[in-house]
Write a structure and sequence with these properties.
Layout lengths: L1 H8 L13 H6 L36 H14 L7
Length: about 80
């Protein structure tokens, strides 16, 4: 999680994570929570937001079975029509 926080602090990307995991950074103003329609505090309506994931890997490098399975699950859940390489 520390690597993720460091990337966020440098302005590299964004993430969806539990607020408690970045509470100190939010309180100190080092990170900013962005609104996501349907997930506002107190919202009683179920939200169905869309999200995308981008996974980049070196085709000639070894991937652990755990990483390969994670990538397969992401492709299945997100409905990626292309096979995972």
């Amino acid at each position: 999680m520390q690597s993720l926080r460091n990337c966020l602090k440098r302005g590299i990307g964004l993430t969806l994570c539990p607020a408690v995991s970045i509470a100190a950074e939010l309180a100190a103003g080092r990170l900013t929570a962005l609104p996501w329609a349907g997930f506002e505090p107190g919202n009683q309506e179920p939200a169905h937001p869309e999200a995308a994931a981008l996974m980049i890997w070196h085709a000639d490098r070894w991937r652990s079975p755990l990483l390969a399975r994670f990538m397969d699950i992401c492709a299945e859940v997100m409905g990626d029509p292309s096979p995972v390489a």
